[in-house]
Amino acid sequence: MKQQSLWEFVVEQHEKLFSQILEHLGLTFLSLFLAILVGVPLGILIARNRKLANPVLGIAGILQTVPSIALLGFMIPAFGIGATPAIVALLIYALLPIIRNTYTGITGVNPLLIESATALGMNKRQLLFNIQLPLAMPVIMAGIRTAAVINVGVATLASFVAAGGLGEFIFGGISLNNTNMILAGAIPAALLAILLDQCIALLQKSGYASLRYLKLGIPILLAIVAVIYVWPSASKSDLKFGFTPEFMGRQDGDLGLRSVYGIQIKPKVVSDAIMYKAASEGELDVISGYSTDGRIQVFDLLVLEDDKNIFPPYYAAPIIKTKTLAKFPGLKDALDLLAGKISDSLMRDLNYKTDFQNLTPEKVAKDFLTENGLLKEKRNGNAGTIRIGSKIFGEQYILVAIYKMLIEGNTDYQVETKTGLGGTKICFDALANDAIDLYPEYTGTGLLVLLNPSQETIRKVSQHPDKTYDYVNAAFKKQYGIEWLQPIGFNNAYALMMRQKQAASLGIRSISDLKDYLDKAN
Amino acid sequence: MIQVESLTKRYNGKTAVDSISFQANEQEILVLLGTSGCGKTTTLKMINRLIEPDSGTILIDGKSIREQQAEQLRMGIGFVMQHSGLFPHYTIRQNIAVVPKLLKWSPKQTEQRTQELLEKLHLSEDVLNRYPQELSGGQQQRVGIARALIANTPVLLMDEPFGALDTITKADIHAEFKSLQELKNKTVVLVTHDVQEAFELGHRIALMDNGKIIQIGTREEIIYRPKNSFVSEFFAENRLLLEYKLTSISALMPYLHESGNFLNQSNLSESDSTWHALQKLSTDKTHALDYERLSQAFGEYRKSQIR
Ligand SMILES: Nc1ncnc2c1ncn2[C@@H]1O[C@H](COP(=O)(O)OP(=O)(O)OP(=O)(O)O)[C@@H](O)[C@H]1O
Ligand SMILES: [Mg+2]
Fold it and tell me: So where does this one cross the membrane (chain A) (predicted)?
């Protein structure tokens, strides 16, 4: 199959790209605007009342050190999902530079000038608007500039909470191993950052007079934002769908739902990390997920039956280069100790332990190995180092921990783990470029994301788990010199899920039921 | 008229201004003179409430300055800062117009008054659209003075207004300043540490030391009747020069026996200082005799002053 060029991708997806850019701008501007509205007065306040300066700057500083994804996560209980939590999170990030620069700008004004203005009879308000703010303006503008650039960057993460923006392409592309998609998101994001930076630099040069332009700009900005957020909310169905960026772009995801089941919906794009919680809280009704996820039982969700078989099997197995196996004799035997040992329900249980009982993956791995009589004393050998990678979700962390203990207990090799690699593409590239030696992969992912063969082949090989496994193993060997070792046992296929209660009350058990319900509703 | 009564200001237990009292009258320039750190600026700033005193009272035209809002008070007092204190983000025009704007004058009135002051202070019109940093030190000082004069307040406070200038420019500005009609019916308090400036501009001088006024009086009183050794020592270095400058030719008339027909010949008038006359006469050999006579007359006059 001919590779699609970036330009072709952009042309094909230009509508999506355009709306993502608009959303991105909307998020950035609105949050920046609110941050100015909050930050500048706060800066003025602490400049007048210096005792407050340290606590306020301290709190803003701490808020800024909270990792963006975590911050977005904290927002959900309070603001649900969508634009609101994203804007609040962005606002919080933008606050520190704005407050701090307002404060340093105002306190940095030459005290002689303040005295001079006071001596002429200015009151506090006149002093602020005539002398302090204008003289501090270049510094304040520099703060706003910093905040704007930060916000363009952080706004890419807004797609995790279904707020849209260019993050949809960037993170979708990373999950889907689609470089064009990544670039189609990343290049405009970078350009936006540069553009915004330069625009504000211009304002900065024009000094205090620029405030007048800002007054003009605000209504325009609000109008843009209103159009962005009011327009698409005119959706018909009352069921709210939330899919991960990965699910959105895959044949076995949203595309399959459309083409095989004929389900035409406008889902929100949302991160896996918060999707389940959003579903259990009623923010979303139908979500995409993984069938071994520990959260299914915690949040009391029902996995809808895939009666038309669009989700191919996702059997997990370690993948590794053939030449690496040759280099480390005995490694294969150690890895194969896990073959067929973990069933769907066992995996769900292990996931539950890390995700909800907050046990460390190491502890869960150790307990599992002990129960199965596989745990052996660490040999502390130094015959070489094996580097194991993992994607950024709990299940992979557990598998990596198990493999580490198996290798260190059964061979003389040492293990170095590189966990939390962003997604399929990052893991696979790391493996292909020998940055890691192995990582657990899923047959379905190998088939659809990495190999991406014709529709015909996909239909044929995804009928049966063994066929899928044999196909990917053979193709990987041929194309990349990479082998699939024996599957671990469980099938972590994609699934659609709903809250048990809601599914029961609507009489939905399978995806076809869902389709019928949607048809009736419209 | 400003009346200051037992005014005291302490900073962290250290007394900067120590229970001082004085009075500044209408139509006079009162100079606060003293070495660095003696409390001049502190005293001046208490008059327009930039600094609040620990104790003591200040009356302007018989009314306590605490009776009105600080901003109102300050709008009625022209103030020239120790350093020009012009706003760097305002043009000269805007800098001069700060107080009119606060007083809500019409643009026309402001413009008219600005033009008037430009002329009086010998500033060319093209400075109006420039920014302070584009002006020379002397020009900046004049703009600072224009800004303080614009509202024609009855009281003017000046903190070393000519401090940053070289001696030649200073002499020029002194001359201009003295001849300003604007000042004639104001109460002016001027702070300086420059003895010559004090004698050049002040009608009366208050000599300060360590937060106290040691002596207050006319220039003649200060020079010829020093209250104590501190005062006489303070002026010891400049004494003769000051005396020459202080004495006008009219004061020497009784001692010029062959009455001063040299006056018309050499373009001098009775109101000129002896210093000025001697300077002028010394440059011309034909007036050598006049020079000698004048010196003699001064010597006799001086004997009569020092008792
Ligand atoms: N804000 C302040 N805090 C503490 N001490 C001060 C403060 N302002 C002035 N002082 C002290 O008070 C004394 C008088 O200061 P002031 O500024 O009135 O002196 P000055 O006579 O104007 O001197 P100069 O000729 O150098 O301007 C000095 O000893 C000075 O150190
Ligand atoms: Mg001073």
Answer: 25-47, 68-96, 135-161, 181-201, 213-231
> Residue A363's pLDDT is what?
93
Among chain A residues, the shortest Cα distance to B97 is held by: A120
Q: Do β-strands A438-442 and A316-321 pair in parallel, antiparallel, or remain unpaired?
A: antiparallel
Give the whole-angstrom CA distance, residue B283 versus residue A160.
Answer: 92
Q: With CB atoms and an 8 Å threshold, state whether A131 touches B87.
A: yes
Q: Does A499 lie in the same domain as A481?
A: no
Residues A61 and A187 grouped into a single domain: yes
Q: 10 Å Cβ neighbour count for A212?
A: 10
Instruction: Kindly report, residue by residue over A294-346, the tens digit of the pLDDT.
Output: 888 888 899 898 888 888 889 999 999 999 999 999 999 999 999 999 998 89
**Cβ contact, residue pair A208, B147, below 8 Å:** no
Six token digits for residue A202 = 């211009």
A257 and A131 co-located in one domain: no
Question: What tokens appear for B248 in the block?
Answer: 């006008």
pLDDT at B275 over 80: yes
Best mutation site among B41, B44, B46 for ligand 1 pocket (most ligand atoms within 8 Å of CB): B41
Does A352 fall in a domain? yes
- For atom 3 of ligand 1, the residue with the nearest CA is B11
Classify residue B2 as exposed, middle or buried by CB count within 10 Å of its CB (0-12, 13-18, 19+): buried
Give pLDDT tens digits for A128-141.
Answer: 999 999 999 889 99
Region B78-88: mean pLDDT is 89
Contact call for A121 and B87, based on CB within 8 A: no
List, edge to edge, every strand of the sheet that includes A482-484.
A414-421, A385-391, A438-442, A316-321, A482-484
The alpha carbon of B63 and the centre of ligand 2 are apart by a number of angstroms equal to 26
Residue A209 to chain B, least CA–CA distance (Å): 11
Give pairs for A228-237: CB < 8 Å, separation 24+: A228/A22, A228/A23, A228/A26, A229/A26, A229/A83, A232/A266, A235/A266, A236/A521, A236/A522, A237/A265, A237/A518, A237/A521, A237/A522
B85 and A134: CB-CB below 8 Å?
no
Whether A214 maps to a domain, the answer reads yes
Q: In whole angstroms, what is the distance from residue A189 CA to residue A186 CA? A: 5
Residue span of the structural domain in which A514 resides: 241-302+495-521
- Let me know whether A466 and A511 are in one domain: no
- Give the residue from chain B lying closest to A133, CA to CA: B89
Ligand that comes closest to the CA of residue B36: 1
Q: Tokens for A246, please give them.
A: 């990965």
B79 touches chain A (CB under 8 A): yes
The whole model's pTM is what?
0.75
Residue-wise pLDDT tens digits, A12-46: 888 889 888 988 998 898 899 899 999 999 999 99
Q: Is the ipTM of this complex over 0.90?
A: no
By CB atoms closer than 10 A (0-12, 13-18, 19+), residue A170 is buried
